[in-house]
Design goal:
Layout (H helix, E strand, L loop, with lengths): L1 H34 L33 H13 L3 H6 L8 H12 L3 E6 L3 E2 L4 E12 L3 E14 L2 E4 L15 E6 L6 E3 L13 H11 L14 E6 L6 E6 L6 E3 L4 H10 L7 E6 L6 E6 L8 H4 L9 H10 L7 E4 L2 E3 L5 E3 L7 E4 H7 L2 H11 L2 H10 L15 E2 L6 H8 L6 E2 L1 H13 L1 E2 L19 E2 L2 H16 L13 E7 L8 E7 L4 E6 L5 H14 L2
Parallel strand pairs: 7-10
Antiparallel strand pairs: 1-3, 2-3, 3-4, 4-5, 6-8, 8-9, 11-12, 11-23, 13-16, 14-15, 17-18, 19-20, 21-22, 22-23
Organism: Sphaerimonospora cavernae
Pfam families: MecA_N, Transpeptidase
InterPro entries: Beta-lactam/transpept, Beta-lactam/transpept-like, MecA_N, NTF2-like_dom_sf, PCN-bd_Tpept
């Protein structure tokens, strides 16, 4: 029994072993048959219970960048040529926030008429880097073609070629924080300029004269006094370094008309009138030549160029001419004369002093310094006649045609028809009249001993109109007038008014024929400079005109 049981166990084990071997053989045959089946034969059906899941397909990985450095550089430069800075920005790796603004500022500074960008062949500098040299050819108005060589540096970023931007792309020497700027200078002045070739001072109060002078020089067509073609320079400005000029434009100076006016004298004259509340003018001339050194004219009104052409009663400044006539007749500065409060011409009218002042007996020098009307009326009636006074006035330019190049007139005096008219003319009332230019020339003649016709053009040959001849004063007359004008400043009506030492002059207060407030005058000289100050309806010469002259002279 025991042997039968053992035999049965061995039989079962053998059966299981043989079944397993047979199963493996059958399985192997099936797999081999499936593998050898031709294209189109039905595949054997797998047992769902024993099927193995299929593996996913394998993806191929890209390792080369899109395009090339050359293609990106070409696109970048073409976008630059058409000014498409936004498109350029898209081709830059990590562009600065102000990328577009920097390019616009660069182009605005250059103002190129045209831009040509010339690309060269790309140069490999590493596994993922390259450089593309390129040139800029820019047409710069006033300069010509400006050529600049720069370099685009590129690198692969995320399998795409990108421009690695820096300011050196714009210009090879431009550093971070630097800029290219346009520096402009003043345009060359056209038309009239000062003696030094400079534009006239700002707010010079001479515009009307410059316009007329310009028109005279161009056949009647006014030329602007400011140029339009300014000088400029393109500069490279890097932090911590001095600005460096890359290119510049220096326009050829246009034809200029140089005047006799000196810049500093004109500026001083204009500033002396700045705070004057009444219409006023100041004319300065060079006594030795008659050259006009300054004309500041704020007279305004319907008649322009009032300082050169509009005539006013000169008041007591005309006593200078009357004194010249008296000195020519043998009177000296030391001759005693009466200066009563009023003087009655025998058989004619009475003439008062200003404020009816009575100074008793004084010298002619003192009478001039104190501006005694009565002294000059009496001496004129007793020592002169109408012809003598008119002739003396003519020696100082009255009634003489003049032309500065910008127009001009001196003074006028009608032949006095009776003693009353002669007496009124003797102290600058009556029918005598003068321009501020004319009275500046009177002071100049005393200073130099010669009356010169006025000149506003430095080159006298440019003045077509014939000028009157120079008139030489008698030596004793010139010396006597200088002594009297000096006394008027040191001890007379102009004393204590702030005039610089060495100034000589004469005040004048003239009645307005139209019934307005008096006009104020002061004429004088200091060194080789003579002047006339006129205040229309501004009060007395001493109170209104002398302070202006003092400001003017102290500024020189």
């Amino acid at each position: 029994m025991r042997n039968r049981a053992l035999l049965a166990l061995i039989t079962v084990v053998a059966t299981i072993f043989v079944s397993g071997v047979v199963g493996l053989i059958v399985s192997g045959r099936q797999n081999s048959t499936a593998a050898q089946s031709p294209v189109g034969s039905p595949a054997p059906t797998a047992d769902p219970a024993t099927a193995t899941p299929a593996s996913p397909p394998t993806m191929e990985l890209r390792t080369e960048p899109d395009g090339s450095a050359q293609e990106v550089a070409d696109g970048y430069l073409r976008a630059w040529s058409r000014g498409d800075f936004e498109a350029m920005r898209e081709m830059v790796d990590d562009p600065p926030d102000d990328f577009v603004a920097r390019h616009r500022d660069f182009e605005d500074a250059l103002l190129s008429a045209s831009v040509k960008l010339i690309e060269e062949a790309a140069v490999t500098t590493g596994d993922d880097t390259a450089e593309v040299p390129f040139g800029q050819e820019r047409a710069e108005p006033g300069h010509g073609t400006w050529r600049v060589r720069s370099t685009l540096r590129l690198a692969v970023r995320d399998l795409s070629w990108k421009v690695i931007w820096s300011p050196a792309v714009l210009h090879p020497d431009l550093a971070e924080g630097g800029q290219i700027v346009r520096a402009t200078g003043p345009a060359p002045t056209r038309g009239p300029v000062t003696r030094e070739g400079r534009p006239f001072p700002r707010d010079s109060w001479a515009d009307e004269y410059l316009t007329r002078l310009s028109a005279a020089m161009t056949g009647g067509a006014a030329v602007p006094t400011e140029g339009t073609d300014a000088a400029w320079a393109i500069q490279l400005q890097n932090p911590g370094e001095p600005a460096r000029t890359l290119i510049e434009h220096r326009p050829r100076p246009p034809k200029q008309v140089r005047t006799t006016i000196e810049w500093a004298v004109q500026a001083a004259a204009a500033r002396a009138l700045d705070e004057v509340g009444h219409p006023a003018a100041l004319v300065a001339v060079r006594p030795s030549t008659g050259e006009i050194l300054a004309v500041a004219d704020r007279l305004g009104g319907p008649t322009p160029r009032g300082a050169f052409e509009h005539k006013y009663a000169p008041g007591s400044t005309f006593k200078t001419i009357t004194a010249a006539a008296l000195l020519s007749e043998g009177v000296t500065p030391d001759t005693p004369v009466e200066c009563p409060a009023a003087y009655q011409i025998p058989g004619h009218r009475s003439f008062p002093n200003y404020k009816n002042e009575d100074h008793g007996t004084v010298t002619l020098r003192r009478a001039y310094a104190l501006s005694c009307n009565t002294s000059f009326v009496r001496l004129t009636i007793e020592r002169l006649n109408a012809d003598a006074l008119v002739e003396q006035a003519r020696r100082f330019g009255f009634g003489v045609p003049i032309d500065t190049g910008a127009g001009g007139a001196c003074g006028g005096i009608d032949h006095p028809e009776n003693p009353d008219a002669l007496a009124a003319d003797s102290f600058g009332q009556g029918k005598v009249e003068a321009t501020p230019l004319c009275m500046a020339l009177v002071a100049a003649a005393v200073s130099s001993g010669e009356w010169h016709p006025p000149r506003l053009l430095l080159d006298a040959a440019e003045l077509a109109a014939a000028q009157p001849e120079t008139v030489t004063l008698r030596q004793d007359v010139a010396d006597g007038l200088r002594a009297m004008m000096s006394a008027a400043v040191t001890e007379g009506t102009a004393s204590g008014r702030g005039l610089p030492e060495g100034t000589a002059g004469k005040t004048g207060t003239a009645e307005d024929w139209q019934g307005g407030q008096d006009h104020g005058w002061f004429i004088g000289y200091r060194g080789d400079l003579a002047f006339a100050v006129f205040i229309q309806n501004g009060g007395t010469g001493a109170g209104a005109a002398v302070p202006i002259a003092a400001r003017f002279l102290r500024a020189l």
